[in-house]
Structures are given as structure tokens and as C-alpha cells.
Amino acid sequence: MNKQKCAVIGCGFVGATIAFTLMQSGLFSEMVLIDANYAKAEGEAMDLSHGIPFANPMKIYAGNYNDLSDCYMIIITAGTAQRPDETRLDMVHKNIEIFKNIIPSISKVTKDAILLIVSNPVDILTYAAIKISGYPKERVIGSGTVLDTARLKYLLGEYLSVDSRSVHAFIIGEHGDSELAVWSSANVSGIDLDGFCSIFGKCGGDSLHDLYEDVRDSAYEVIEKKKATYYGIAMAVLRIVRSIVRDEHSILPVSCYIDNHYGLNDVCIGVPAIVGHDGIEKVLDIPLNEDENKRLEKSVNTLKNVISELDI
Question: Which residue among 93, 168, 175, 261 is the active-site one?
Fold first, then answer.
């Protein structure tokens, strides 16, 4: 396996922006782009390569599945784009069929890569990728609620007039309409959120609920205004990839297979996990209050109801 080599499958807005972000990161020396439209992958590879004199030496090229045989990291963004009138779950049947072609094509040439699923609905497609590929579950990771959590930190930081990097809070559950904010453990540089709010007189329950709804619905708003979201998810993917490549053991709310965590099992969902060189090192059961536990269970059941209708 070449640990300096990555691949991006799917060269639409999200895939191309992720490739651009990774090209500038210096984490890899080789990147192969794969798309159902080979000319699109070629064009993106050419365009990216023209920027290499301003970045780090890197080989970027359009390829096919045989080029994945020695790949360390394979990032899958392929699938139909979310339309303004669609939820992420509405896309599931079309994208499951796409994955039934992509995943066997990968597993035929390599069993050693780490698969990072970005396509939506990400939790169900991560689960499908585990079932279809036969890969160890710790090496199939979804982008989960990493971006949702970043949106929460950003909006909460703006609301409280503090640096968003000082805000510590998670969005967990489905990357979608049933996700939840874990307010019970949220804090600003060690000061619990309720305490911080009381000091500055900033927020109450209604304000936090409105903020949560803004986080939950922000993708819909972006898609309505500009047809797609791609910058934020590209940065979220870079954060996950960096933790894996550099073996940072970062705690990120990625979509991962849970078995007897939070009293739940046999599903992939966004929850905090330690992420390192070999993928998911450990899923963490962070404290939840009674309401949060119920909402997480409801989120899982939403996904399981969809999965039960799929042939995977």
C-alpha cells in the first residue's frame, strides 16, 4: 500500500473541491480521480495540476479502478446531487444502486484501503459500503456530522461573540433532519454553556433551539441559493483525512458502525470516535441526558426503517 496515494471517486462539485483541498494540503504525493464521465475526471486533473507550481509536488491524474490497487485512502463522493426539494434520505435508492457498482469495483482490486464515504445519505451509504465491501468496519468511515458540528460551533461562536474554536459541542445522529445537538455537555473553553450564557446573559432555551434549527437546515438554504454545498464539506473531509494520515487520534463525530453503543446496534451514525491511522480506533459513548438519548434513538430508528427497505 502506498500511504502517499489517495483517490477521489466522483468529480462533481463536492469531489472536485475535495481534490482541490487535498492538493493544497501536502498530505499526499499522488491522487487519482475517477468519474463515470472520464473526460470530466481528465479535465479536473489537468486543472488541478496547473496549480501544482504554487503548492507541493504531486501527481494528479484521471484513472480507473485498477489504479486503486495500492491506494491508502479512497474518498467516495459519487452519487446524485441533492435537489432543493429533496432530503438526504430521498436520495437513498438512486445512490445505493450507484454504490452497488462502485464498492465491488473497489474491493475487487484492494482490501487494504480506508474508505471515506461522503455521498448522501452518508450514514446509510456507509452502512451499505461495509455490507457490500466486506471491509473491516473500522476502515469504512462516513463524514457523519463533522460538518454539522462545525456549523454548530460557527453559529454558536457568532451568537456568543467568541472564537468558534473555543466552542466545544457536538451534533450527533443522522447527517440529516433527525440529527441532534448535545447541549448537555456543550461548553466554551471549559465553562459549561448554561454557565457561559448566565455570565453574559446571551441565550436561553428558545435561542438555542433556533440555533439548532439553523444548523439542521443550513444545507437546504445553501442549496436553494447556490444549488450545492461543497466548501464546508471539503474542509470537513480534510479534517478527517488529516487525522488518519497523521495518526492524530482526533475525536470526530464521524459516521461509524455502532454495536452496543448508547444501547444501539447494527447501524452507522454520526457519533464521536477516535480516528487515527487505521481508521476508527474507538467509538466513544459521551454522556447524554434523557431527552438526548431519546432523540438519538429516534434518529437511529429513522435510519433503520430506511435500511430495512433496501436490498443490501
Answer: 175
Q: Are 74 and 99 in contact (CB under 8 A)?
A: no
Instruction: Check whether residue 242 and residue 136 sit in a common domain.
Output: no
Q: Looking at the chain, how many residues does it have?
A: 312
Cα(62)–Cα(39) distance, rounded to whole angstroms?
8
274 neighbors 251 (Cβ within 8 angstroms) = yes
pLDDT tens sequence across 270-288: 999 999 999 999 999 999 9
Between the alpha carbon of residue 307 and those of residues 12, 23, 76, 187, the distances in Å are: 26, 35, 20, 35
Q: How confident is the model at residue 91 (pLDDT cuts 50, 70, 90)?
A: confident
Q: Determine contact, residues 108/65, Cβ cutoff 8 Å.
A: yes
- Full-model pTM: 0.95
Q: Is 249 a catalytic residue?
A: no
Is 44 within 8 Å of 105 (Cβ atoms)? Answer: no
Domain of 281 in residue numbering reads as 146-307
Q: How far apart are CA 84 and CA 37, in angstroms?
A: 24
How many folded domains does the chain comprise?
Answer: 2
Question: Which candidate, 142, 137, 136, places its Cα nearest to that of 123?
Answer: 142
